[in-house]
Amino acid sequence: MDGEVLTQPVFRSLGWTWWTKRPSYALVFLRETSSVFIAVQVVLVLVLLHKAGQPAADYQAYLDFLWNPGMVVFHVVSIAFALLHTYTWFNLLPQTIAIRVMGRRIPGLLLVAPQFGAWAVVTGLIIAWVWWVGAG
Amino acid sequence: MRGRSHEPIWWSLFGLGGITAALFAPVMIFVVGIGGAVGWDAMTEALAHGEDGIGALLRHTPVRAVLGLILALVTVHAAHRIRHTLIDLHVHAPPAVLIVASYGAAAVVSALIAVVLALF
Amino acid sequence: MSTAIETTIKFEVFRYQPDWDEPTYQLYDVPYREDWVVLDALNYIKDTVDGTLTYRWSCRMGVCGSCGAMVNGYPKLTCAAFLSEYMPGPIRVEPLVNFNVERDLVTSIEGFMEKLESVQPWIIREDGATDDLKSEYLQTPDQHAAYQQFSMCINCLLCYAACPVSSHSDEFIGPAALALAQRYNLDTRDEGVEQRRDVILKDEGIWECSFVGECSAVCPKHVDPAGAIQQAKMTGAIDYYRRLLMPWTVKS
Ligand code: SF4
Ligand code: FES
Fold first, then answer.
1. B7-119 architecture in CATH?
2. Nearest-CA distance C190 → chain B (Å)
3. Cα-based distances in Å from C145 to A49, B49, C122, C180, C216
4. Model confidence over C103-123: pLDDT tens digits?
5. Which atom of ligand 1 is nearest to C221's Cα?
6. Domains of chain C
7. What are the phi and psi torsion angles at A91 (to 5°)?
8. Is the omega angle on the peptide bond into residue C88 within 30 degrees of 0, that is, cis?
9. HSE, side-chain direction, 13 A CA sphere, residue A91
10. ipTM
């Protein structure tokens, strides 16, 4: 004793399993995981672009692989992750960009809504264009 | 300047790639992987081999340039996120190793995309 | 009437004393009162059951920031955590994670104090006139509103206990200190942006943050430290490119 400090503290960390500990953490973790699915999809497109320059049979074999039922399930899961990314990305923008007009922060919706609008337009235009090329 | 981070480079590319992925990733996955596969004929035709299919989609140079830019930005975005997720999972690798591995892989993929689109 | 069986609630309280080898959990039965918070239960335990239980508290009204603990795994001000929210129990009370535990629920805040000081959370004047008490520095309500939210912090450190980055990085300056840095950087009376820059713009400053955002979710004062850090990243990135591309616009 004599004023001597005996403290030998223990450190307790939230730990690497933080993402299992609360639904809000889990959602953030899924948001981050979207990057893995998106990266794989980019590689699939890269291979598609490469095969498009190869003989028709090679290309068709790749399409058959890409469109087999198992892969379609994977694409559906990927699109769910991509949509989660879209949704969270748009919604988090107001925290990063604080625009003040006459001393007040503009409502988050004013930043969020136009992004969803742009998304709908981009998605619609691209599908229409691909459809037009395919049908034409 | 001591200890000044160069993370702004990655963070700003992550941001650009993030908005790009948010806008384009869902529709890209749909067009490439789902539309044609589930029997939407026009979608199947659009991805068919040759001048009337995928060749028509990619005929114009600006289209290929924009597609390449989109894919590259999305790739860097994903690399940045994967790197930070690994760190947050307490993966104890030297920072430089993670940086080289993640952005290096993204650079390789982006270069391949550029080559493939240029030779198309 | 006196025959009514009193409702009790079970507490599992983290116990650790410096001369112990291992922490342990101790069980206590505490009478349930509708208007009691977890801090009342801790006080009940200390006053009537076990005087050795150690924890911090002061104001009992969510102002002093000293009573933070993990309540059923969630960082909470124990003076604001009503027992009724946790009925029928049990309630597990542990010290805030991501800190060294000195004794029972008491954590060491030394590391945080160093980080807080490193961002110089006070008004800095280039003319050194802060000790000239004769000067007045006027500020409009709009200018005040620009940083007001970030000035509400009570240093309760719940945000650090919620932060996955703080869980693996000792050096990360962390949510509350970075929010306070932003609070002073946004203050029109302050001229210390340059002085804070080197600390904030390091990796261990804002750039280690991966925007999990749970700090803002647990903050009892709605400070939104995650937003403060994101906004600082935006300013920091612009600053970085300005230095890179237009170095002549940067004063040394
Ligand atoms: S930012 Fe909020 S949670 Fe963090 S120390 Fe301040 S008041 Fe507490
Ligand atoms: S005792 Fe002061 S904040 Fe809880």
1. Up-down Bundle (1.20)
2. 21
3. 52, 60, 17, 15, 19
4. 999 999 999 999 999 999 999
5. 7
6. 8-107 (3.10.20.30), 110-249 (1.10.1060.10)
7. -70, -25
8. yes
9. 9
10. 0.94
